[in-house]
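chain below, 346 aa
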Amino acid sequence: MINFLPKKRRKKKARRLVILIIIIILSAGLYYFYSLNIPNSSSSQIETFVIKPGWGTIKISQELARAGLIRNILVFQLHSLFQGISGRLQDGEYFFSKNLSIKEIAQILSRGAGATREITLTFIEGWNNQEFAEYLEKKGIARPDDFFAVIKKKADWWDNYEFLNDKPGNLDLEGYLFPDTYRVFRDASISDIVKKILDNFNQKLTSELRFEIKSQGKNIHQILTLASILEKEVSTDQDRKLVAGIFYKRLELGMPLQADSTVNYVTGKDSSRASAKDLEIDSPYNTYKYRGLPPGPISNPGISSILAAIYPSSNNYLYFLTTPDGQVIYNETHDQHVIDKAKYYR
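prediction:
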């Protein structure tokens, strides 16, 4: 017994030591993973960071920390070592958002400075030009006044886009700025961005679509104007084609379109229905007061609405309404339409 107890104690101590080591390793691993992936800051402010030729991982990590772009120098160095990118961190001028993680910054540095020269801009289908302007201001690209200065006044390069020939000269580019996701240089001018958007629309509006528009006796401006209304009135491909058929039928019969979205375009409201007071507004965009299409688009439509305006679905309906939950109700007669309005809009 005298020799047995010390041996047993030694085993217990060894087990405790092993457990302690495991805890330390796990804790270190968790700390490493956490430090590697957590955003450095909640701020999206852009900081310019320059890596000079000859800088190694240690120098780069120190300068990143000094610039407030990373919190843990050692984690950056270890990650670069583990990922085998220590020798691939490239010099140059970078533009970093302060809310990037160590992992994200290391990946960008391994790809080179060009990776941060571009930014992503996403314009949503149905946005009007005012919303485009507010988005660009939020992204720090330009002030709204600068944006409207480009899209309102005809420039020489507008002549490069044949589809603008149908646009009345007194209107801006509302409806022609195709909603999509774009990659642009961070220092791109508003003109460069607008050109990129128009180039994209020029591709989306294929020769087949242009031929179809012309064969129908319509022009691109008319199609975009109706498509912009469809974009705001209904949300599915099927409904857009059905409503396009209704609107064309109303135009043929000399009926007013009576689209609430065109009235909202004047008032700036974002409601599904225009108020009785709003319907009295004297504006060519008030399709309750004035027959035919409004002077121009009320939003920038996506390809679904454009295709619906070109290829409407033939139907027997003359009236429709959208319920508060988004369902579209169609009717052939005005009497039934009035009944449904009373039912869904109490």
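The chain has a mean pLDDT of 91. The radius of gyration is 30 Å.
thats it, cya
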